[in-house]
Amino acid sequence: MKKEKIVRKIENVIALYPKMDQPYVFNKNGGPNGKGGSDPCDAHTSGAKYSTNFKMTAEQAKELLTDMGKAYKVRKEDDWPKLENPFTPDTENPKLFVGVARIDASWERPPVHIDAKKNDLGKGFKVTKGSIINLQVELHPWSNPKTGHGVALRLEAVQVVKLADRGVSAENNIFDTVEGFAKEDDDSSEDDLESVFDVVAEEEEEEEAEAVAEPKVKVSKKKKEAPKDDVDLASLLDGFDD
Question: Hey, is 107 helix, strand or coil?
Fold first, then answer.
């Protein structure tokens, strides 16, 4: 019997390390410092993927995890372990949580990119870090005795709600290494240039100059007893109320 495909939309999340314009593969000697990172590659390279991490509020994380738990319960076989919470607090803002959506490039199904008006952005469009995006993912429960278990968020499409500015990075420029000033020679402190982007609807962009509040986390004052089953959603969701 063919299993029904479970598709979910994840709305208004912050793109973190988006690598969706082409396939990428992790290289332990890659990255800007040669200490590990993702390198562009061919779709048929072993381990090649399209992927993006994303930041979400605690409320968004709870809703997504609840749907993942339901999907896991439907597909779960007798020997599958209990589902675990895959989301981790953001290092910059612990009120936000980080998830990841990806798809193997070998499937030759690059994620579709559209703008806020549903116009096709075309092949190779690069979403910038900090952009506000909507994601379409397939919830794919899985379990393997050797590699683990969980619910994969298979990336199918991305809608760009608000594209973050693309600055010139330390790696993406035309300069060569030359003799002169080096960072270790300077004793002055650096300003923190990183910030968490607020979630702004397209029609509200004119109000961006106003102060932005931290994402609000809904805290349940009274927890209702949830029915016990193989997927203990109550215990999974407890971590988002801290």
Answer: helix
- What is the pTM (predicted TM-score) of this model? 0.71
Greatest CA separation for the chain? 68
Structure letter (DSSP) for residue 181: -
Residue 214 has pLDDT above 70, yes or no: no
Residues 6+ apart with CB under 8 A from 211: none
For residue 212, the SS3 value is coil
Q: How far apart are CA 112 and CA 122, in angstroms?
A: 8
Contact 130, 164 (CB under 8 A): yes
Helix (H) or strand (E) holding 102: strand 96-104
Distance CA 215, CA 198 (A): 8
- The closest of 100, 99, 125 to 110, measured between CA atoms, is 125
Cα gap 82→61, rounded to integer Å: 18
Residues 6+ apart with CB under 8 A from 205: 162
Q: Which residue has the tokens 């949580």?
A: 97
Of residues 78, 64, 85, the one with CA closest to residue 232: 85
8 Å CB contact between 98 and 54: yes
Q: What are phi and psi of 113, to 5 degrees?
A: -115, 125
Mean residue pLDDT across the chain: 79
Q: In this predicted structure, what is the pLDDT of residue 219?
A: 43
Give the percent of the chain with pLDDT over 90.
60
| Tokens 């193989």 belong to residue | 230
